[in-house]
């Protein structure tokens, strides 16, 4: 099971008066009862992660734990890793996580780390996240950009034809003006999608609690991963079978699983003479788009 080597974490909610221990089991201490309730993870029906709290439904009882109850980002991230490792082992649990930049721990597998892995530690910068997402947005929207440009050119041509007329005399002006107008529409479409991508992910960048923590990045023949250093176990990786394709920008490699991003790798964390070899290593295992 992924992240099974993480030590158990104890959490106390002053709001509800409940205490919790997250480990191989979930232990719940109630102030109104003498003994604790000990649940196996197979008894969990649903886990929902919200900005202010996590709720866990067990046998019809919903336990809400406010974010402040964890005491620190590190404790929260460790508990989240334990929960997601258990969900990977119990896929029948309904899980509703918040959107985030780091990959969900549910897609990691236990794996022995080789000695020749590419490993680096650091934090994300907003520039890296924005550049990756703008590139992703452009890749996804590229066909719509062409459609918008062609439609813009056609509409502009029709407008000029209906207002000026006499195509035989004016075609020399109609055609290049329509083409440049279509290009202008395409540029505006590109700028609009870029602004949407930056706004969307700047919000995500500020809301993800892992972003303020040091991240350990790993790429090797067995797989890859981006894990909060406080949760790093050196035994958990995302297998390459989870990767559909990757894109590359000036700042970052982004690996996709279908239309979902699962890995962001900042180039600046590796020496320049190593970056080319790292790019070739990734390209040998997953196609570029």
Overview in brief:
37% of the residues lie in helices and 27% in strands.
Unreliable segments (pLDDT under 50, ≥5 consecutive)? none
Count every beta strand, where a strand is a DSSP E run of 2 or more residues: 16
Q: Could you tell me the mean pLDDT? A: 84
Summing up helix and strand content along with how strands pair, one would put the structural category as alpha+beta
The value of Rg in angstroms is 25 Å
User: What's the order of the H and E elements?
Assistant: EEEEEEEHEEEHHEEEEEEH
**Helix run count:** 4
Percent helix:
25-40%
**Main sheet, how many strands, which sense, barrel?**
5 strands, antiparallel
Shape: elongated
Widest sheet: strand ordering: 9-13-12-11-10
Strand content: 25-35%
Calculate the terminal CA-CA distance, rounded to whole Å.
32 Å
Describe it for me?
This protein has helices spanning 73-89, 126-163, 167-207, 272-283; strands spanning 9-13, 18-22, 26-29, 37-39, 44-49, 53-58, 61-66, 94-96, 109-110, 118-122, 215-220, 223-228, 236-239, 245-248, 252-257, 260-266. By secondary structure, the chain is an alpha+beta fold.
């Amino acid at each position: 099971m992924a992240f099974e080597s993480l030590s158990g974490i104890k959490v106390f909610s002053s709001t509800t008066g409940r205490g919790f221990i997250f480990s191989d089991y979930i232990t719940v201490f109630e102030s109104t009862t003498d003994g604790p309730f000990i649940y196996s993870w197979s008894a969990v029906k649903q886990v929902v992660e919200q900005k202010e709290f996590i709720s866990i439904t067990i046998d019809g009882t919903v336990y809400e734990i406010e974010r402040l109850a964890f005491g620190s980002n590190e404790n929260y991230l460790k508990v989240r890793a334990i929960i997601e490792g258990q969900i990977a082992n119990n896929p029948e649990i309904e899980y509703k996580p918040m959107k985030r930049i780091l990959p969900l721990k549910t897609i990691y597998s236990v794996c022995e780390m080789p000695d020749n892995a590419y490993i680096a530690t650091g934090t994300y910068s907003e520039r890296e996240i924005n550049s990756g997402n703008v590139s992703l947005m452009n890749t996804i929207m590229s066909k719509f950009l062409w459609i918008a440009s062609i439609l813009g050119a056609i509409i502009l041509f029709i407008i000029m034809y209906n207002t000026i007329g006499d195509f035989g005399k004016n075609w020399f002006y109609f055609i290049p003006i329509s083409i440049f107008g279509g290009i202008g529409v395409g540029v505006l479409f590109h700028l609009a999608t870029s602004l949407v991508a930056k706004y969307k992910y700047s919000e995500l960048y500020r809301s993800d609690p892992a972003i303020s923590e040091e991240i350990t990045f790993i790429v090797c023949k067995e797989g890859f991963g981006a894990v909060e250093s406080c949760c790093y176990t050196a035994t958990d990786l995302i297998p390459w079978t989870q990767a559909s394709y990757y894109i590359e920008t000036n700042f970052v490699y982004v690996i996709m699983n279908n239309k979902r991003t699962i890995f962001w790798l900042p180039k600046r964390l590796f020496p320049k003479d190593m970056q080319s070899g790292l790019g070739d290593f990734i390209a040998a295992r997953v196609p570029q788009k």
